[in-house]
Design a protein that fits this description.
This protein is 35% helix and 16% strand. The chain is an alpha/beta fold and 419 residues long. The strands form three sheets. It has a seven-stranded parallel beta sheet with strand order 3-2-1-4-5-6-7, with helices on both faces. A six-stranded parallel beta sheet has the order 12-11-10-13-14-15, sandwiched between helices.
């Protein structure tokens, strides 16, 4: 079968399904903006990145204008591969950046499976969830305007959607949800596995510090150290933890670049902001900012962790939460909707109010004080991952969805040649 994948940052969420399809000798072409990433047996076609939005465009419409420009550029690239004889049996891509909006003009009648990640709402989600960072009234129309691509995508003919969690699907209007299949994402349960029972607790951190068996370790991981992932709340919990546990060390994985939310008003980073707030309150020799780390280091840190903290606004859940459950870490998570879909309080982890650093510290100390509770939560987190977060099951479900949409089975076959 012939597949056309579309994502502005190749390979995006599709790395595992693409590898699966190429192993089965299917023909895969991938449209993307230029980048250095490569996958074996995948023909990556770069489209011209769209030029910046015209400053005369209303600021609330600039994101959609960029999406329209990206849709035009991606469709032009698709016309080139069509002229070379490639016509896909299905188009699969992410709707977030608009690239898919014109694809069916190039390939009419071809089923399209789009990733619907998040529908913005002004109530009950990330907007004004954290009273410390209110969204001013004049910015609310911009939030609504962020759904322009979502709404255009939902109106495409013969278009089907997928999303990875029930909560993400629930953010969409009720009339749209029947178009969006739940396709839970999984992790490699063999690679993300618990530490061996007799594994040494001696561990050298990437910054060179050597953890000894007496040291307890709390881990915090996020792509970006920012309020959306509770970085500020976690930092405010640390003074109490350090006083209560003189042998406690903390690692923070993540970089300082802008993430989902805005930068601080002074233009610095959230790390700098929180370090100023915490000045004189922390033993910095026991707080290790590691930046981005290799994936195997990421896994090894969680295996050594005595308590892993995962906090999130009502927004999209991170991969690290799935990985932590598969590794069998004792997790303290925020009592927010996307986290509750994974963590059941006192069964697969502990839940704590997002906005209360003292309650977070209490939950962490409870785990450190109660080895029996910690072992039970670790075991049940792993069992949950085995039942619900197996990548192999995810790929099987993905294949079944493709077969249903194309009305074709997916046997392996020799790859066609795009001349």
């Amino acid at each position: 079968m012939r597949f056309l994948f579309v994502h502005q940052n190749f390979p995006g969420q599709y790395v595992h399904i693409v590898r699966h399809l190429t192993r089965e000798l299917h023909d895969v072409v991938f449209l993307s903006e230029p980048n250095a990433n490569q996958l074996p047996d995948v023909r990556k076609i770069a489209y011209v990145s769209p030029r910046a939005s015209d400053e005369r465009t209303h600021e609330n419409a600039r994101e959609f204008e960029m999406a329209v420009r990206r849709a035009e550029a991606a469709a032009n690239a698709a016309r080139q591969i069509k002229a070379l004889g490639f016509v896909p049996d299905i188009i699969i891509g992410h709707h977030g950046w608009g690239e898919l909006l014109n694809m069916q003009d190039v390939f009419p009648g071809t089923p399209l499976l789009g990733y619907f990640e998040f529908f913005y709402n002004l109530v009950g989600q990330d907007v004004n969830f954290d009273p410390e960072f209110p969204v001013p009234e004049h910015r609310l129309p911009m939030v609504r305007a962020k759904n322009a691509v979502n709404l255009a995508a939902l109106s495409l003919p013969d278009a089907h959607g997928q999303t990875p969690t029930e909560w993400q699907r629930s953010t969409y209007p009720a009339w749209a949800r029947p178009q969006i299949a739940l396709l839970r994402e999984g992790v490699d349960l063999e690679h993300c596995s618990p530490a061996a029972p007799r594994a040494s607790r001696r561990f050298t951190l990437p910054d060179g510090f050597r953890l000894e068996p007496k040291h307890q370790l709390i881990t915090f991981m996020s792509r970006n150290l920012e309020p959306y992932r509770g970085f500020h709340v976690f930092m405010r919990a640390l003074p109490r933890l350090q006083v209560a546990r003189p042998d406690l060390h903390v690692t923070l994985v993540g970089h300082d670049q802008p993430g989902y939310g805005a930068l601080p008003a002074d233009g610095t980073t959230w790390r700098e902001t929180m370090m100023r707030e915490m000045a004189g309150k922390l033993d910095l020799e026991r707080v290790h900012f590691l930046g981005q780390v290799p994936y195997d280091t990421h896994v090894a840190l969680m295996r050594r962790s005595d308590a892993h903290v995962y906090l999130s606004y009502p927004f999209v859940a991170s991969w690290s939460l799935r990985e932590a459950m598969a590794i069998g870490v004792a997790i303290v998570g925020s009592d927010t909707a996307p986290v509750r879909e994974f963590i059941t309080h006192e069964e697969t982890g502990l839940l704590t109010p997002f906005l209360e650093p003292d309650r977070l510290a209490d939950s962490i100390l409870r785990l450190l004080d109660d080895p029996t509770l910690s072992r039970r939560l670790r075991r049940r987190a792993r069992l949950h991952a085995e039942a619900h977060l197996d990548r192999r099951a995810h790929l099987d479900d993905f294949v079944r969805l493709i077969e249903r949409l194309t009305n074709q089975p997916l046997p392996g076959r020799s790859r066609a040649t795009l001349e």
